[in-house]
Amino acid sequence: MKPYVYAISDIHGQIDLFEKLLKDFDPRMHQLVLIGDLNDRGPHSKACFLRGKELVDRYQAIYLRGNHEDYFLKFLSHPEEVADKYWLNGGQETINSLLHPGATEEYSPTEMAMMIRSRYKDLILFLENLPYYFEWEQYIFVHAGVNLTLKDWHQTTPRDFMWLRETFHNGRNQTGKTIVFGHTITPSLHGDNQTTDLWFSDGKIGIDGGAIYGGSVHGVIFNPEGIVQDIEYQKRTKPWTP
208 with 12: CB under 8 angstroms? Predict the structure, then answer.
């Protein structure tokens, strides 16, 4: 077991910020945990997906399933039913990055899903098998939260692991562990729609600084006793080019 966990969440297609955070990743010392939502909304979802997969394959990183990975997979399974709502949640950026700019204006949802399934079989299989949570020492890492009303939080439904908000944020944490999560941006959790700092409450730590909305990304390094370092980068103002 490595002495530290390095947790990153909610990159949303911003490969430049992802790579900045990864400069501080030391695979000899850090168990890397990606807390979901590498895709959608930002322009480079394909690059983020492939980087996430590479980190799992090469360094045994843990990549958790977020609601946006789940949305993408649901689109592939039921393209005509899901497309409109997926587009409203930033899905067009993912589809265009996997195919080509303007693809979502050129093809039907069914055609796009078929092309992606044909071209990215390994990636899709990888995403379909992502775990929902990761336990380490006294920590639970999860995308959105756990059901705090259950006697055993492990029985949380897959949907709740990926989608929970207020009932988790406001619930009493009796798990005996610190829960580290993304999904809900910290400016919202802080209640001012401005503060991008980490959010702490009742053994819960929110680490999504809302970079895709102009906030920041966090890379948080933990040891068994607590937070060792919080690495924060603000959203770039210039577009990233490979």
Answer: no
